[in-house]
Specification:
26% helix
């Protein structure tokens, strides 16, 4: 299996990357089950890229049903170091208007029933999440989006809700009072798992609506979301093409060593079975 440094997980409305050459579809089975779909590996702007539609082609996997662990683990087995999430989000702020892009730098996990770690059996690991997104990668994503003419908001508090239903007006108003800026259904536990996988992770958030708080805008509907997604999807594809040449071959951020001081379990207490299962994640620490 080839080594691919850059991975892209596409959200609602973003099911493929056009213009890739030397394409190969790879079906990966992980210790945590199957990913949302086959992983498409190809060359774009001179870089090998692995692409996975988060909801599957045809959009058949709901947010709470996504196998986040399998998705991120599959990317890890391909060698992915930089993971870019393209995601539809709702805006909780007037200035973050539909069809704008937002690059969040903080997140609040308001999900209720998702497994948020690879290390839930036979080993204990506590990774730092003070800064849940890679600042360096996020800056490059924002730069690329601006380069292709998009309106970009740098830095925002993202609240991740369970879904699949949209917010009530009461919830939307409360999230605004809490200081949240945008809302989505998929960045958690994806961000946590990417950190455990020692990946640089950033979200290119495509604003589709004002949730339901805005008195002068209709509450979010699927049709509204789809109409704005079509516009955002094209801009996101242009952003990725501009972004890929910017990504450095060598990483210098702390993401690459997130597990170095995070493993609590004593080495002799971790079984061979656990070591083998999690080898792509912990192999360098259990030689």
């Amino acid at each position: 299996m080839e080594n691919v440094q850059i991975g892209v997980i596409g959200g609602s409305g973003f099911y493929e990357i056009e213009g890739m050459s030397d394409i190969e579809e790879i079906r990966i089975t992980t210790p945590f089950g199957d990913p949302s779909d086959t992983v498409v590996v190809g060359t774009l702007e001179g870089r090998r890229v692995a692409f996975l539609p988060r909801h599957g082609r045809g959009h058949v996997v709901l947010p709470s049903g996504i196998n986040f662990r399998a998705n991120v683990f599959a990317m890890k087995t391909l060698g992915v170091e930089y993971l870019i999430s393209v995601s539809a989000i709702g805006s909780l702020r007037e200035e973050m208007a539909p069809r704008h892009f937002v690059i969040p730098n903080q997140i609040f996990d308001h999900t209720k029933r998702r497994v948020g770690t690879f290390f839930d059996e036979g080993i204990v690991v506590h990774v730092g999440m003070a800064d849940p997104f890679c600042g360096g990668l996020g800056t490059l994503v924002a730069d690329a989006a601006e380069q292709v003419g998009a309106t970009v908001h740098r830095g925002a508090m993202y609240i991740c809700m369970e879904g699949p239903q949209f917010s009530t007006k009461g919830e939307s108003g409360l999230y605004r009072n809490w200081g949240m800026d945008v809302i989505g259904m998929t960045a958690m536990p994806e961000a946590k798992l990417a950190r455990e996988a020692e990946m640089c992770y950033a979200v290119l958030g495509a604003v589709t609506d004002y949730d339901c708080w805005h008195p002068e805008h209709d509450s979010v509907t699927v049709q509204m979301l789809l109409d704005n997604l079509r516009s955002n999807s094209e801009a996101a594809k242009r952003t990725l093409k501009a972004l890929l040449p910017m990504i450095p071959a060598e990483r210098t951020c702390s993401c690459k060593d997130a597990l170095a001081t995070a493993v609590v379990s004593q080495p002799d207490a971790v079984s061979k079975e656990v070591r083998e299962k999690l080898k792509p994640l912990i192999g360098r620490y259990f030689s």
